[in-house]
Fold each of these.
Amino acid sequence: MGAARLEDTVEALFTEEAARVLATLIRLLGDFDLAEEARQEAFAAALEQWPRQGLPTNPRAWLVRVGRNKGIDRIRRDTVFRTKILDRETHVVGGEEPADQDLIDDDWMSDDRLRLIFTCCHPALNLEAQIALTLHTVCGLGTQAVARAFLVGDDTMAQRLVRAKRKIRDAGIPYETPEPAQLAPRIEGVLAVVYAVFTEGYAATEGDQLTDAKLCGEAIRLARVLDALLPERAAIMGLLALMLLHDARRPARVSGAGDVVLLEEQDRTLWNQEQIGEGLTLVERSLRKPERVSHYAVEAAIAALHAQAPHKEATDWPQIVGLYEVLLRLHPTPVVALNHAVAVSMVDGPARALDLVDSLAARGEAADYHLLHATRASLLARLGRRGEAREAYRAALAVARVDPERRLLTARLEELREAPERGDSAKLAGMCP
Amino acid sequence: MQYLLMIYSNEKETLALGPAVLGQMSQEYAEFTKSIVQAGHFKAGDRLRPTATASTVRVRNGKTLVTDGPFAETREQLGGYYLVEAKNLDEALAIAARIPGARHGSIEVRPIWALGET
């Protein structure tokens, strides 16, 4: 019984310390694979020794020290590897045995976590590799879990990780926090990875909901780590706020039958008020920063206006339109333009919004984006142009890939068939994220 | 580490810039080269004559085949290179970003793979 409890403690400790220990071992050993193996050996040694000798006073320092020694043993055994490592990281082997305090000094360990994040999110790696590597090494998800999250096979994901780690080593991607002049653009890159992890979890996919919730959770956790390590940065606070506000609606987004529930039809009592409160505080703080306004913060401000409306009729659409106009200047994407049109329809009516959507469609930027067609369809229906609306819904169905979204579009199409006399209510507001 | 910085640009567009702009660019290249020599990064570097002067050699079944022109038709052509010493990729990328040609063409940055290195 006592042993079982120690095992639980050790297990919990490993989970908590895995990423930190890895981050520091990569710095000390100068190689991702070597550090992962060394960590594994250190954990195995701990499982063997701790039950007999009791927990060390500083388990993290113990794991780092043992891992470092295991790694050095391995370098000494592997002569080919040794030449490579010695060539580049002369400080690894030899030199004085560092004191525990140097190995696990809190500032150094924090810096190591940042180094690991910036290295995994280096722009010389493609975005897919950045995301996979971040989930695997920073968040500590196993290869299988990362593969499941991105709906690819385990072998494909393992390959992707191997290639990414090889590029880090062979191309000489540094294990460093960027220079001050490079910091802001590199933070943008890291945030793009974090947001991609979140979006992957948040998009209504057929993937299992537990995996999706885990991805959103990891993205939020990463943003919290970044906010703690690089405090008071408008973009980081803005993204954290945005994710908290979106994630707060998670319990209301999917019906019992697994169907998508649009924003305007959601049961608002299911929204997570604590998360909304935290999100609101962060948006305000982010927007008050003297730095250039972050597009994440503007998106978060829009999400905040939705979150603050007790019922859909109370939504402050004029202010949302204004925020989308700011966003169109900061971050002009077809999705933003589309959401702007939706908001305009709630203020000025569907005719003006349809003009905006049609001009977006004419630019051909979002032809394969199902929400473009779905939004057109919905606006046409509100204008009573039912034939054209049905056609637009069919165009949306032709490009929509995810089942819950296809079911939603089919249902809208059916409504247009079944009740030709009834005026269509605007099923539109919910189309924005 | 050593990196090869390969300078690619569209030859036709570059030539169309005219003598005044090209003269200015030569001046910038001279200043850039001087600066990386002084900083200790420079190992080697040259510009190349246009692809119209290129020949391609293949040996198949013991026979040597020589053809006119570059190996592949691409939108951008290799126009020059620098071989530099840099402490890591970030430093190499920062040097590459200062090459005058980076402003209209592109620079491919590749680590040198020394013989004997795995």
Amino acid sequence: MKALIDWLDERAGLRKLMDEALNEPIPGGARLRYVFGSVLMFLFMQQVVLGILLASYYSPSATDAWASTEYLNDQVTAGWFLRGLHHHGSSAMVVVTALHFLQTVIAGAYRRPRELNWLTGMAMGGLVLGFALTGYLLPWDQKGYWATQVATGIMGSVPGGEPLRVLLQGGTEYGNLTLTRFYALHVFVLPIGLAALLGIHLTLFRKHGVTPPMLPPEELERKTQRFFPSQLLWDIIAMAITSAVLVLLTFSTHGADLYAPAQPASNFVARPEWYFLTLFQLLKYFEGPLQLIATVIIPGAVTTFLVLLPWIDRAGSRKVGERMPVLVGVALLMSGVVTLTSLAMVEDANNQKFQKSLAAAHVEADRARELAKIGVLPTGGDAVFDNDPQVGARKLFKESCENCHTLGGSGGEEAPNLTDYKSREWLSGVIRNPHDKRFFGGTKTHKEMEPYPASALPDDKLKAVVEYLTSLIGPEAGQVDAALVDKGKKLFADDLDCNTCHEVKPGETGDGPNLSGDGSKAWIIRVLHDSAAEDLFGKSAGMPKFGKKLTDEEMKQLSELIAAQRGAKGT
Amino acid sequence: MSDSHDKNRAAHGVPPGEDTRRDFIKTVGIGGIGLGLGAVAGGPAIAFVAYPIFNATVSGSGGFVKVGKSDSFKAGTPVKVDLFADKRDAWNRIVKVKVGSAWVLREGDKLTAYSSVCPHLGCAVDFDTDDTKFKCPCHHSVFDLTGKVEGGPAPRAMDVLELEEKDGAVSVRYQRFRQGIADKETV
């Protein structure tokens, strides 16, 4: 071992390097309050390692980003944990940066001759926020997409900012280039920038040493300890606490959020990460041309104040009592940040509409992530919804049926509206008024059936007939009230003479459609094939034959979609 | 602490506030916590990176793929057919992509399908109609009509794929096999 160290020492000056790295004297001794810088370094290194791990699965393109994030988060072993650590790690960096900042301000460590430490520190603080901003978009989920839209939108609204915005997002709209650019910034530019600044910051720190407590020089001398092991022990304990908090946070949230894939055509109530809520809240108070106050003037003034702090502070010494103006200024600033952040949180917590849409977003996210388990079509994260047969069927419906039929709010009125189709409510409606536009009123041919108003068919009897018709659907109808069915059957055959037109035995033909199985999936498929069959709508059928246009699978999907309408209202 | 003790420490470059006797305990503490910190992300990281070793990340359907009608394969001349299947590629699901191709050969009533992937290093094997041999263009392996190696570096015969005939339609199950070894092992 000694021989190896000698060998390395002769070639690399190992002993001197180790001596410089570890034996730095700390006047006044090791202290807990010196840990923040080291914790930040630990967090940065952990973020780098986690980032590299995530990059080994993540794909920065508009079509792949969401699906690859879903894959690494939900399918790859431990992915949720590592991504969660990376996500919460960025919050931890912001918190510890703030603590480091406050400690520096309180100790007066920004003062001469440490102005350059201060400036590099401020620059690194800016980069930490840059990491957060660029990283937020990368999953290409609804939240990241829409929150980042706000950020780049602000950039574009600043005078002269539009070309910068286009440059940053790689075009006038979001797309592949937005992701590749944000990715390049997040994983190359910002880390290299931060590492370079960190190198300068540390070299300067080693040059000037810690800013010790205000004690007589002899006492500081007497209490001097070395970085290793005394201060490093404090540092590593603080790192362990930070790490424990991160792990707990990651477990309690089961990692980081992943919302549904970005859908540029949708709207989503965007919220930035919590540490940007100050700026978010500030925006609410300034409208129109005044917006510039919230986006540029206030943040710019605050940044200028902080950057120039070493020169603003004219106090004779770094005694707290002599630096009151500066300390009060920073304290006001911090309370402003806390107040605005709390206001933003409270407003959201009390905003029913926001809470509702947030809950809906979570439901959609869960569904998208469940559907992604079988793989996402390469056309984009959004294509995950095509995995849902209902979604595929809706698309089919849109292509083949919507010209005449309405479903869920959109479509034509030339054929019956299929929303809630063959539910008890729908059946009641069609008996009461078959010529309503909702039923057969829009068709050219189905005019024969007489309406049954309440005078001819009171509500209680109608209910029985509807129950009987529901039972005719077959086993798919679910629970039916047997007594009501019996009553309805008698009314159908005797009092109302429905059976003069409608047969109920399979295959028999009458003037109206045979009602056996009417509304079941098999029946819907038969109608799709050929609605003019003798026992269906016969000669009066106006619907095209889809038997040749659609595949069996497609008709099956459509039949499932339409049959599911019956249960849509829980009838 | 005695004066002589302090002088002794100063001579060894130990700062006055340091208690050398505690150094060892502190160092052990640093090492222990440091290892723990590394393990927090380190353990999961290994499982994360190694995921593809224990889980399929890219796969075809593994099922039978229709390749044509029985009577389209004439005796004596192998026919190259493309095999389409649904494919999984990590997060992507790709519908009906060409996953590979096969040579289908008729001998009397019997149809045989050979994977077109050379068992040597995976190039696509061609059929030379002039001397009715399968030939690999990369490293010049030669196979006869039964797939047997007649020359070149191929370590085994061409891989036979499972074939199914039903109602006049021919289906082949597409599989890939490990290359460069004498035994036929599925990947």
